Every structure is written in C-alpha cells, then in structure tokens.
C-alpha cells in the first residue's frame, strides 16, 4: 500500500465517527445523547404563596376565681362563649431555602353570636351544681377576636410524596367580649330566692384575654397528583397570659397575669390544584389553652388598688375550633 493510500484510509477512519454522529447512525446519535449532562429537576415548592380564606369559628373562654389564700375552693366561673362566628384571614409563605420556608398568617372575626354564663359559689363549693348565684347573658358582643402567627418550617424528610417538617413560631391571640342586660337567680335571704333582670342597655361586664405563645411542632405533607393533604401539631409549655375584667355596675377592674401555661394545637388541611398557579383549600384548626393560674389585682374607680389575691386566685383557659375554605396562589 502506497503512502498516499495509507493517508486516505487514516483520514476516512478519523472522519467516520463524526459522520455517524451527524446522522449516519441513529443508534450512535442516541448513545451520544445519553452522555450529556443531566438537566436539574424543578422544585415542586413555589417560591412564594398567598392564600385568602373565610369560614366558621366557635370557642369558649373560661374565667375562674378561687378562694385564695383561704381554702382554694372555687368562688366564681364565667363561661364566655363564641358561637357561629364568621372569620376572614390570610396566609403567606416564602421558600427561603430548599429546606426552609418562612410563614405568616392571621385571621379576624367579622361577625358572631355570643353568650355568657356567670356562676358564683358564695355559700361554699360542693360541686358545680351547688352554685348560689347565676346569671345568663344572651346579649354578649364580641368586641374583638383576632390571631397573628409567624414562624418557619424546616424540612428534614421528603420521599415518595411524603414530607416532614420541624416547626417553630410565635402566636398571638386575643378575645374581648362585652355583656349587656341578662337574667339572674341570686341567693339573698334564702337559697336561689331572688330572680331578676339587668338593664339591657347598660354594659355589665367587659372581659379580655391576651395569649402569647412561642411554640414548636411537627408538620406532615402528602402530595398525590393534584391533591395535597397537610397536618400539623404544635405545643408550648411557655404560654404567657394576661386578662382584664371590668365590672361596670360595681365600678371594679380586675387585672390578672398568668405564666407559664400549656397549649396544644392541631391542624388538618387539604388542597386541590385547579391550575399550576391556583389551588382550592380547606382546613380545620383546633387549639386548646389549658387553665392557667395567676394572681389578681382589684382596682376601684377613684380609689386605685384596693385588693390583691396571690396566685392561684385567678384562672383562665381557652378552646377554639375553626373551619375554613380558601383560594391559594403560587408564584
């Protein structure tokens, strides 16, 4: 073989793979494609989401007074009930890192039906049914009720549609109710011998609670197609509570401080994606603040501080259930 022939064969051998890759052999072209760098998967978590919701809320705030430092028995119990309340609220979420989301949310009651029952045991406590004084107030007005919650979720597990998050945050919740009118049964000369009514146009009692709650918890999310189911459990042993009770007819103001207290909250939710950007949401939220014990300061109009009862003369608790539906936008 001549030198020119050898050069021609070498040139054809070098050019043959290039020609095949350009389309002479589909199998070879496919093999080259498999050697390209893989394309990164797009995260299913949106960078930012905003949700508006409305729904129904029911709850009861408890106010308690005990004979301290006498014998510690129950002296008074007021049940402040929130019925058929309409709520309006919103939630925001920002995906700060692949594993960390920052969240904020809140709601406010815009309409409600309420009631209050006041029980007193001025002749000694021998079980709940031994009350000596009772009053019922159907005209109880919810002056305010709202909640603000800020926190974060750190994802530590994600596989096969299931994700788990560690939760931490701070929740502020307050309720205030005013009582007008009402009926009563009192024990004056005998046992439950006096029956009467209060002026329906006059403020009787105004009561407000403030709940400050730093919390931790655990969240779970399961995604399948267009559906997403969520659940969260939070708790706190460090709740700080304040309360104020104004007895307008007696010109008395009671202030109370409680700490620490326990709280537990449970949320269950579902989302359905109607498009890439929009989802319909539904959620049930329950929170329970266990009875807290604290001291009471009593102020008389024009006289200032007139009495002080040490802890645990006062008690307060709160239970709430909220059911909502909403619309969520993913950006």
UniProtKB/TrEMBL annotation:
GO MF entry, a single one: aspartic-type endopeptidase activity
GO terms for cellular component: cell outer membrane
GO BP term, pick one: proteolysis
Keywords from the UniProt entry: Hydrolase, Protease, Signal
Pfam families: Omptin
Official protein name in the record: Outer membrane protease
Catalytic machinery residues: 118, 120, 245, 247
InterPro entries given in the database record: OM_adhesin/peptidase_omptin, OMP_A26_sf, Peptidase_A26_omptin
Source taxon at top rank: Bacteria
Keyword Repressor listed: no
Signal peptide annotation: 1-29
Positions in coiled-coil regions: none
Species this chain originates from: Microvirga lotononidis
Claim: Signal is one of the keywords in the record: yes
């Amino acid at each position: 073989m001549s030198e020119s022939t050898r050069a021609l064969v070498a040139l054809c051998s070098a050019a043959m793979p290039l020609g095949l890759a350009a389309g002479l052999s589909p199998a070879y072209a496919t093999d080259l494609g498999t050697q390209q760098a893989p394309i990164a998967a797009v995260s299913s978590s949106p960078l930012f989401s905003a949700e508006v919701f409305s729904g129904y809320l029911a709850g009861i705030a408890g106010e308690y007074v005990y004979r301290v430092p006498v014998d510690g028995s129950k002296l008074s119990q007021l049940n402040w009930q929130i019925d058929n309340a309409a709520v309006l609220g919103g939630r925001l979420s920002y995906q700060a890192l692949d594993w960390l989301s920052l969240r904020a949310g809140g709601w406010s009651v815009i309409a409600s039906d309420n009631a209050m029952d006041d029980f007193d045991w001025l002749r000694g406590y021998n079980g709940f049914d031994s009350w000596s004084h009772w009053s019922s107030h159907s005209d109880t007005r919810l002056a305010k009720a709202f909640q603000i919650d800020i926190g974060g979720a750190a994802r530590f597990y994600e596989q096969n549609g299931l994700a788990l998050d560690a939760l931490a945050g701070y929740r502020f919740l307050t309720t205030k109710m005013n009582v007008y009118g009402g009926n009563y049964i009192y024990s004056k000369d005998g046992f439950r011998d006096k029956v009467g009514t209060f002026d329906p146009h006059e403020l009787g009692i105004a009561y407000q609670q403030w709940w400050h709650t730093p919390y931790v918890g655990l969240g779970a999310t399961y995604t399948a197609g267009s559906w997403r189911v969520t659940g969260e459990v939070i708790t706190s042993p460090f709740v700080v509570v304040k309360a104020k009770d104004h007895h307008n007819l007696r010109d008395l103001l009671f202030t109370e401080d409680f700490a620490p207290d326990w709280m537990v909250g449970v949320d269950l939710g579902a989302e359905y994606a109607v498009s890439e950007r929009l989802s319909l949401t539904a959620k049930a939220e329950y929170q329970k603040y266990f009875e807290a014990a604290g001291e009471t300061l009593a102020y008389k109009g024009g006289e200032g501080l007139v009495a002080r009862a040490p802890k645990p003369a006062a008690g307060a608790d709160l239970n709430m259930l909220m059911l909502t539906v909403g619309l969520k936008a993913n950006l």
